[in-house]
């Protein structure tokens, strides 16, 4: 179904050349226009949520009010905390994330209102309430999973009502003392939020929501899709590949050595992780935003230098190879490097951060779906034999 125009998605549109536009605005546009934390440089993800839902850029006061509301709703129900704490450390963080979000169904105002027989014209209000409640709790869920699996199980900080969303997430993860990491979280959560409605996580959330499942169940389904290696987990796989490349090249990250390695990779039938995209035909603007962040904050970081050299070599190799429609890097080829630099080195957790961000894109659309009365999604399917019959009829002119 790649390329088939069959969905309505208000928040963003992906242009093959320009890249993503959020309500008509490019990533440089939102970096310039959206409100920032006092003294901050990167846009606040809660401001992007406002933009995606309403189509309008919020004021600083509106953004601050939303930040405060999200902070006020951040506490988890006891049974959700227990579910996270009882999860074995060998269970992938994304599986734990999905389980915890599903368990939040107990808090669904939409499910309760539907059970009471609320009129469908009111669905959007309860979907909105659930969405805000869910967004508010995601940082605490993500942080608890991270601290349980990789550290001592204790949160180093609690949500502070005076801080923005990205800052609170960074604090609970244990990186609150680094102002640059706070800025990275704000940028990361913003640019990973939305990428049209046809990608697996966005489409799955929309599809499950079209059956009038609550935002909690709908997002949990989307997170299960995001966990796949062909979607959100790709950022983990890119980093693993970078470490393997570095090891096999024995530290020689010259362009000549990288080019030889890339050809060996392609000639063996493997792909170059982090390069290519189903829609894009130029460098992913999300990659560019992260590259500019790295050039400003970590220009001499060895892993960044490796990624930069690959960026200069890979497009030419892939173009000459001739089997890749888009030889340019996508968002996954850079995000892990930034996290590594600041000490968040546990690659299996990266997709959880992606999941927190993706909620900012899919939940506004879910609210809009209910507001306009979007029906259940139910495309027609055929068996192979039926498709053969269809093609024969077309060829026969029937």
Automatic annotation (TrEMBL):
<feature type="active site">
    <location>
        <position position="231"/>
    </location>
</feature>
<dbReference type="GO" id="GO:0006101">
    <property type="term" value="P:citrate metabolic process"/>
</dbReference>
<comment type="similarity">
    <text>Belongs to the citrate synthase family.</text>
</comment>
<dbReference type="GO" id="GO:0005975">
    <property type="term" value="P:carbohydrate metabolic process"/>
</dbReference>
<dbReference type="InterPro" id="IPR036969">
    <property type="entry name" value="Citrate_synthase_sf"/>
</dbReference>
<protein>
    <recommendedName>
        <fullName>Citrate synthase</fullName>
    </recommendedName>
</protein>
<dbReference type="Pfam" id="PF00285">
    <property type="entry name" value="Citrate_synt"/>
</dbReference>
<dbReference type="GO" id="GO:0006099">
    <property type="term" value="P:tricarboxylic acid cycle"/>
</dbReference>
<keyword id="KW-0808">Transferase</keyword>
<dbReference type="GO" id="GO:0005759">
    <property type="term" value="C:mitochondrial matrix"/>
</dbReference>
<feature type="active site">
    <location>
        <position position="332"/>
    </location>
</feature>
<dbReference type="InterPro" id="IPR016142">
    <property type="entry name" value="Citrate_synth-like_lrg_a-sub"/>
</dbReference>
<dbReference type="InterPro" id="IPR019810">
    <property type="entry name" value="Citrate_synthase_AS"/>
</dbReference>
<dbReference type="InterPro" id="IPR002020">
    <property type="entry name" value="Citrate_synthase"/>
</dbReference>
<dbReference type="InterPro" id="IPR016143">
    <property type="entry name" value="Citrate_synth-like_sm_a-sub"/>
</dbReference>
<dbReference type="InterPro" id="IPR010109">
    <property type="entry name" value="Citrate_synthase_euk"/>
</dbReference>
<feature type="active site">
    <location>
        <position position="277"/>
    </location>
</feature>
<dbReference type="GO" id="GO:0046912">
    <property type="term" value="F:acyltransferase activity, acyl groups converted into alkyl on transfer"/>
</dbReference>
């Amino acid at each position: 179904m790649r390329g088939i125009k069959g969905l309505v998605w208000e928040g963003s549109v992906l242009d093959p050349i320009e890249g993503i536009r959020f309500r008509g605005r490019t990533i440089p546009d939102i970096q310039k226009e959206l409100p920032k934390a006092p003294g901050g440089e990167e846009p606040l993800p809660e401001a992007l949520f406002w933009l995606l839902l309403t189509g309008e850029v919020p004021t600083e006061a509106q953004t601050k009010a939303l930040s405060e509301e999200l902070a006020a709703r951040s506490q988890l129900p006891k049974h959700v905390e227990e579910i996270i704490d009882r999860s074995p450390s060998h269970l992938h963080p994304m599986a734990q994330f999905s389980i915890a979000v599903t368990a939040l169904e107990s808090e669904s105002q939409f499910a309760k209102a539907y059970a009471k027989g609320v009129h469908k014209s009111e669905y959007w209000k309860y979907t909105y309430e659930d969405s805000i409640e869910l967004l508010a709790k995601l940082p605490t869920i993500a942080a608890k999973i991270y601290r349980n699996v990789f550290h001592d199980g204790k949160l180093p900080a609690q949500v502070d009502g005076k801080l923005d969303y990205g800052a609170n997430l960074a604090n609970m993860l244990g990186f609150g003392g680094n102002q640059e990491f706070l800025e990275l979280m704000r940028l990361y959560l913003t640019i990973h939020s939305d990428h049209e409605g046809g990608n697996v996580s966005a489409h799955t959330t929309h599809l499950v929501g079209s059956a009038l499942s609550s935002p909690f169940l709908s997002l949990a389904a989307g997170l299960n899709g995001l966990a796949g290696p062909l979607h959100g987990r790709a950022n983990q796989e890119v980093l693993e590949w970078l470490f393997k490349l570095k090891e096999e090249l024995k530290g020689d990250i010259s362009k000549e050595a990288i080019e030889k390695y890339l050809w060996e990779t392609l000639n063996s039938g493997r792909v170059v992780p982090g390069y290519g995209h189903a829609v894009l035909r130029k460098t992913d603007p999300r990659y560019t935003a992260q590259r500019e962040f790295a050039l400003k904050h970590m220009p001499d970081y060895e892993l960044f230098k490796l990624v930069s050299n690959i960026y200069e070599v890979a497009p030419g190799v892939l173009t000459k190879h001739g089997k890749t429609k888009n030889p340019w890097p996508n968002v996954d080829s850079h995000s892990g490097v930034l996290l590594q630099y600041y000490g968040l080195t546990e690659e299996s957790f990266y997709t959880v951060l992606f999941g927190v961000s993706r909620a900012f894109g899919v939940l506004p659309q879910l609210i809009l779906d209910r507001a306009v009365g979007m029906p259940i999604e139910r495309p027609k399917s055929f068996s192979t034999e039926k498709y053969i019959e269809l093609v024969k009829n077309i060829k026969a002119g029937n």
